[in-house]
């Protein structure tokens, strides 16, 4: 049976409700229960890991028997597995739901299969309603599921001659105000922001996302990686979120831990040692390189060893965008998938 106007409106509403949930280890999901005549009976959304899923949240607002013959409109396929909560497909069947309209298939190997379970219990199931909008809402979660870790952006600022700092270690500020404002906007889009102990000790960064002096509404969780202790009076201790400290150089362990905490996107802000280590470990999905028209010379290169011994091993990039920012230039790039060396004839 085709999706009707009341169900389409309910999906709009369910998408709106889903966005109220937190970004984290679980996807944001919304649900609306409609009576057979299209009246909204109940609404629900997922409030975060360990709490009821959206469908169950909505059903919990109804008296026993009230959902009999009703339609559940959900942004994600009802799950089919028992985690901290029971399978939603079973909860819907038990409540007497007659029809389910959902947007996006559940990609999870364990949680998927809910639609089949509903159908085999005689529930009418319609998939794909507003799937693009539902996908956009949880794109970060889907990507982190696919990768098995957060999506990682490695960012640095450099002089035109490829230096990340002057010879005395000072690097504030290589770039101008437009580039720095751009960095802050992008920090606010990330769930976490990482630096090495070297940067904490050299620059004492706040690791907040700011517009001028004002904090932006979303703040990334600050992450410090390395063995040396962070001073008790370091600015990172005044961050709105408690910082996470990882006394290790094993970046795979760090990103696995962040993934388990529900971090979907990680912004790595250097310095050169940490940026190089992420690249060497193959843990860079996207690069943001802010290039300033200034020369610094000296030995403080933007990257150190990334495991390239000869030109054949060069880490080729694909440029997604060149963005002029005042007198600076931002290169947005990702690792090229065909890693073949360029052949442009004799030099
Ligand atoms: N231009 C820019 O964008 C930018 C950005 C940030 C910093 N900087 C500049 O960079 C300089 C600091 O550079 P840095 O390279 O020392 O900073 P860093 O990369 O932030 O910190 C390096 C330290 O991180 C620890 N670490 C954590 N994981 C590691 C791993 N997998 N491999 C190796 N080390 C790891 C090590 O310290 P432990 O011994 O404590 O384990 C290492 O010495 C300063 O001058 C700062 O101003 C520039």
Automatic annotation (TrEMBL):
Annotated Zn(2+) binding sites: 53, 79, 88
Pathway(s) of this molecule: Cofactor biosynthesis; riboflavin biosynthesis; 5-amino-6-(D-ribitylamino)uracil from GTP: step 2/4; Cofactor biosynthesis; riboflavin biosynthesis; 5-amino-6-(D-ribitylamino)uracil from GTP: step 3/4
Annotated residues for binding of substrate: 171, 187, 203, 207, 210, 269
Textual note on the cofactor: Binds 1 zinc ion.
Cofactor(s) named in the record: Zn(2+)
Residues at which NADP(+) binds: 157, 173, 199, 227, 271-277
Residues of the active site: 55
Alphabetically ordered keywords of this record: Hydrolase, Metal-binding, Multifunctional enzyme, NADP, Oxidoreductase, Riboflavin biosynthesis, Zinc
UniProt cross-references to SUPFAM superfamilies, sorted A to Z: Cytidine deaminase-like (SSF53927), Dihydrofolate reductase-like (SSF53597)
GO MF term set: 5-amino-6-(5-phosphoribosylamino)uracil reductase activity; diaminohydroxyphosphoribosylaminopyrimidine deaminase activity; zinc ion binding
InterPro entries named in the record: APOBEC/CMP_deaminase_Zn-bd (IPR016192), CMP_dCMP_dom (IPR002125), Cytidine_deaminase-like (IPR016193), DHFR-like_dom_sf (IPR024072), Eubact_RibD (IPR004794), RibDG_C (IPR002734), Riboflavin_Biosynth_HTPR (IPR050765)
E.C. designation(s): 3.5.4.26, 1.1.1.193
Domain CMP/dCMP-type deaminase per the UniProt entry, residue ranges: 5-126
GO biological process: riboflavin biosynthetic process
Catalyses which reaction(s): 2,5-diamino-6-hydroxy-4-(5-phosphoribosylamino)-pyrimidine + H2O + H(+) = 5-amino-6-(5-phospho-D-ribosylamino)uracil + NH4(+); 5-amino-6-(5-phospho-D-ribitylamino)uracil + NADP(+) = 5-amino-6-(5-phospho-D-ribosylamino)uracil + NADPH + H(+)
Family label: In the C-terminal section; belongs to the HTP reductase family.
Described purpose of this protein according to its UniProt entry: Converts 2,5-diamino-6-(ribosylamino)-4(3h)-pyrimidinone 5'-phosphate into 5-amino-6-(ribosylamino)-2,4(1h,3h)-pyrimidinedione 5'-phosphate.
PANTHER family found in the cross-reference section: 2,5-DIAMINO-6-RIBOSYLAMINO-4(3H)-PYRIMIDINONE 5'-PHOSPHATE REDUCTASE, DIHYDROFOLATE REDUCTASE FAMILY PROTEIN (AFU_ORTHOLOGUE AFUA_8G06820)
Protein name: Riboflavin biosynthesis protein RibD
Species of origin: Microbacterium maritypicum
Native organism taxonomy: Bacteria, Bacillati, Actinomycetota, Actinomycetes, Micrococcales
């Amino acid at each position: 049976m085709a999706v009707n106007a009341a169900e389409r409106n309910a999906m709009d509403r369910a998408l709106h409700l889903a966005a109220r949930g937190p970004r984290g280890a679980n996807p944001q999901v919304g649900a609306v229960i409609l009576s057979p005549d299209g009246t909204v009976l109940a609404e629900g959304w997922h409030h975060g890991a360990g709490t009821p899923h959206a469908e169950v949240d909505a059903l919990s607002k109804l008296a026993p028997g009230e959902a009999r013959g009703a339609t559940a409109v959900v942004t994600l396929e009802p799950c089919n597995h028992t985690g901290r909560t029971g399978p939603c497909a079973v909860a819907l069947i038990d409540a007497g739901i007659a029809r389910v309209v959902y947007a996006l298939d559940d990609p999870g190997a364990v949680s998927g299969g809910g639609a089949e379970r509903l159908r085999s219990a005689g529930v009418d199931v319609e998939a794909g309603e507003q799937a693009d909008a539902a996908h956009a809402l949880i794109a970060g979660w889907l990507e982190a599921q696919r990768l098995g870790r957060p999506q990682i952006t490695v960012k640095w600022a450099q002089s035109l001659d490829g230096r990340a700092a002057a010879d005395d270690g000072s690097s504030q500020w290589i770039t101008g105000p437009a580039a720095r404002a751009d960095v802050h906007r992008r920090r606010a889009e990330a769930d976490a922001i990482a630096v090495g102990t070297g940067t904490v000790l050299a620059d004492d960064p706040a690791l907040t996302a700011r517009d001028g002096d004002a904090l932006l509404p979303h703040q990334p969780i600050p992450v410090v990686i390395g063995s040396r202790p962070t001073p008790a009076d370091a600015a990172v201790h005044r961050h709105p979120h408690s910082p996470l400290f990882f006394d290790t150089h094993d970046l795979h362990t760090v990103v696995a831990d962040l993934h388990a905490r529900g971090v979907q996107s990680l912004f790595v802000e250097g310095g050169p040692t940490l940026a190089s280590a992420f690249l060497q470990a193959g843990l860079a999905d996207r690069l943001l390189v802010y290039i300033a028209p200034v020369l610094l010379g000296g030995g403080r290169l933007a990257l150190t060893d990334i495991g390239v011994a000869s030109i054949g091993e060069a880490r080729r990039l694909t440029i997604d965008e060149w963005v002029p920012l005042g007198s600076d230039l931002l290169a947005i790039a990702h690792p090229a998938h065909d890693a073949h060396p360029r052949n442009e004839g004799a030099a």
